[in-house]
Amino acid sequence: MGNDTFDVIMKSDVPAVSVRNLESKSEKFEVPCAEGVMPFRRWTCCAPGCETLLLVHGGSGSWTHWYRNIEYLSQRFNVYAVDLPGLGDSAELPAGYRAEDVVAVVSRGIASLPGLATFHLVAFSWGCAVSAQLAKSHELKSLLLLGPAALGDIPRRGHMKPLIRRTEDMSAGEIYDANKENLARLMFYNRERIDDLAVYLQTSNTNRARFNSPQFARTTLVLDGVKAITTPLKVIYGEHDAPAGTRIEQRHDLFQSVRSDVEFEIIPDAGHWLQYELSDVFNKKCAQWIEQHAGFC
Q1: What is the enclosing helix (H) or strand (E) of 289?
Q2: List of residues 6+ apart from 212 with CB closer than 8 A
Q3: Beta carbons within 8 Å of 167's beta carbon, 6+ residues apart
Q4: 26-162+212-292, which class in CATH?
Q5: pLDDT interval class at 161 (50, 70, 90)
Q6: In terms of DSSP H, where are the helices of 112-247?
């Protein structure tokens, strides 16, 4: 639903100010996307010889899916973050779009930015499907996937409750409560870790979502992509990733079947949005992975 329908109503303006402050430290690059533009934001590392990485967010999200990671990572690397088509501040694609259309737009954007000639790609959820396909046509040093779907039509055992649908007659308080509960059902394992900032990001991102990524969740976009490359590959799931269900080991087997060299890790005490819920854990693992593969190309 658009911002003209639901405003982001919070108990304070601290979350919005925090996001603006982080964004103000970036440089924005706008590339063509359908009838509009798609923004890439870059936080530049001050140290010489820094590696470069691109962060690709999940469904109904934006660059702010990485809010708790950018500051840490940008102290060590040059960090780009994109808003995928139809999400965040990007223009939407024409009706009848395919996953391949998203990949093509993002690929052209990457090719137009000289700072992304060779880089590390780090992706979350829906962004994993896009990134696995991008990896086939770009010179990557490494590929790190968090909570990927698009591994085929596999059964998902679990007890995830359906998300609460927001309606026009909801009050601001009811919208806040619904978004917080949806975070608990979909994105977090420990609901006590859901703070006002997380609710603000969820509300802002879902308000602007004009792209239906779940329709591609049962495709094989991720497996097909990683099968076609030899780029160093790491896959991470939260132990309690709600969309993945309780059979995460089955996903390990699927990756092993197409890439026997995959590094596969399950993070205890974490849900789907693990880079937010356990940001300290993820930040260190991400940095270690990138440093490990700094000279791959």
Answers
A1: helix 279-292
A2: none
A3: none
A4: alpha beta
A5: confident
A6: 126-134, 172-182, 196-208, 221-227
Distance, in Å, from the CA atom of 208 to the CA atom of 60, rounded to the nearest integer, reads: 8
Question: Which tokens is 156 given?
Answer: 């998902």
180: Cα within 13 Å, side-chain hemisphere: 15
* Tokens linked to 232: 């160093």
Segment 88-124, tens digit of pLDDT: 999 999 999 999 999 999 999 999 998 999 999 999 9
pLDDT digits (tens, 9 = 90+) for 15-60: 999 999 999 999 999 999 999 999 999 999 998 889 999 999 999 9
Tell me the two tokens of residue 289: 């992975």
Query: Taking CA 91 as the corner, what is the angle to CA 87 and CA 97, rounded to the nearest 5 degrees?
Result: 80
| Strand ranges across the sheet with 52-56 | 27-33, 36-43, 78-82, 52-56, 118-124, 139-146, 233-238, 263-267
**Tokens 């790609």 found at:** 121
Closest CA to 5 of 137, 175, 141, 220: 175
Phi, psi for residue 251 in degrees, rounded to 5: -70, -35
Question: pTM to 2 decimals?
Answer: 0.95
Token pair of 138 as six digits: 């770009």
Give the three-state DSSP class for 290. Answer: helix
Q: With CA atoms as reference, report the closest residue to 296 among 79, 144, 191.
A: 144
With 80 as the cut, is the pLDDT of residue 11 above it? Answer: no
What is the residue extent of each domain of the chain? 26-162+212-292
Tokens of 26: 């970036």
Q: How many helices (H) and strands (E) does the chain have?
A: 10, 8
